[in-house]
Each structure stands twice: as C-alpha cells, then as structure tokens.
C-alpha cells in the first residue's frame, strides 16, 4: 500500500521531526477516513442501516476519476464525472436495497447492499484488472518545506476539504428543513410521514449525501497516494466503521475524532514498527476502548438523532 512509503527507522520522540512528520501524515490520512466514517454514520444514525455498498462507492470515486483523467478529461470534469457516477450508483442502491425491500426481513437489505459491493468491485476488476493503477494526479507530488516538515499540498487540501464537508454535513443535519426531516425519520418514519415529511425523497437524500462523501474520499485518496484499485475501498471501509464505533455511533464529530485517532495510530505503527502490526494496534485499541467505553469516546445516553 502507498502508506508503506512512510516507513522510517527512528525512535519515538515527541520532539523528533520524524514524529511530527508522521503525526501530520496521520492527520492527512484521517481526513479520508473521516469522510467514509461519516458516510456510514449517516445511514446508521438515521436509517439504522449498515450500507455495505459504501466501500464500492469510495472505490468508484477514485477509479472513475482516474479513468477520466487518463482519457484527457480536465481535473474538474473528471471529479464531476466521478461524483455523478457515485451519486447515481448510490441512488440505485437506495432504490434496490432500502425502498423496494423496506417491508422485507431486516437482513435482506443488508445482503442486497453487500451484493452491490461485490457487483461494483467485480465490474471494475474486469475493466481495470487486479493490479493497482497509477493515478494521474494533476497535482503530482506538490509539496512545500516548513521547517523540518514536508507538507504535501494535495493531502493538506484534501484534509481541509474533508473538514469543511463534515462541517457542512453537520449544519445540514442540525439547522435545515432537510435535517429536521431526517431527525424525525430517525425517531419514527411512520410518524414523520404523518407530519408531512417526504420520507422517500428524504431517505434518497441521505443515500446521495453519504455516497458523495464516500466518492469524494476515493478521489482524495487517489490524489494523495497516486494509485487506485478495485479493492481500495475494503480496507478503508473497515477503518471507517471502526472510527464510527470508536467515536460514538451516530455522532458525526465522534466519527471524525475516531478517524483521526485510527489514522495516526496506523501511520505511527508503520513508521516505527512495520505494516504487518497495523491491524493489531488499531483494532486492539478499538477493543480496549469499547470494553471500557461501550458507547464510544463521544457517545452518551442521548439518542442518535439528538447527538447529530
């Protein structure tokens, strides 16, 4: 994986410039994890539904933008095309897994969304092949030196964009008519419909927003690490779900906090130990925190809809 390039032979010292560099690298990666974690949080917190297709939507964002850039499409057009594809795929998932199957057994929509994950991944596998593909980023490896730190401009821009998108998502949920409709659906879809909320349109909006966040995460991953592959969403999705649980189920900012913690631990483990130990430390920490804090770091006794 591209993160292996971050490995350094050094001792862990807080004042060490290597430590500061890896801390910054971890925060940059955390921005991508945060987008995926918030994508999961939206469907879990509002619809009580774990959308297994989100890893595929993340992958589509990276792969479609890569294909368009390779075909000579300008960067803005490639990003727009990738997001259009991701949005349409997300709406297709909503129609086939949630709306049409809402009256079926609860496990049926889950299996259906898992089917979409497998379908999208294998569709890209046929087109791209099993090997990772270089991402023709318009920004290449643009960076600047700040004291002893090397600051990657694409990664920094991606991190800031991720925070802005999460903040906008929070404002959307908290202060808009759509957000009020979403919170009422989280309480009771039947009562929300009686109160005049357009449940079908509102649920479609949740899927669209979560899909676009995942797609943007995939584009930022390609720009930051200069490669994409058919299975790029799987590992990132595991970290995103872990971040959601670590921060507190249904809490948008908890998902961001969890994502940053997991990303920093991952990068530090690669830098000072080895890449094989990453999952031991990341998921070991998750188990320890959940054992002592079952509701997550920012979880409490308030309902998910209120915590948003």
TrEMBL record:
GO biological process terms, semicolon-separated? amino acid transport
> Where is this gene product found?
Cell membrane
Query: What's an example of a GO molecular-function annotation for this chain?
Result: transmembrane transporter activity
Recorded GO cellular component terms are: plasma membrane
One protein family per Pfam: BPD_transp_2
Which ranges does the record mark as transmembrane? 27-50, 57-88, 108-128, 149-173, 206-228, 240-265, 277-298
Q: What InterPro entries does the entry give?
A: ABC_transp_permease, BCAA_transport_permease
State the membrane topology. Multi-pass membrane protein
| Keyword set, alphabetical order | Amino-acid transport, Cell membrane, Membrane, Transmembrane, Transmembrane helix, Transport
What family does the database annotate?
Answer: Belongs to the binding-protein-dependent transport system permease family. LivHM subfamily.
Q: What is this protein called?
A: Branched-chain amino acid ABC transporter permease
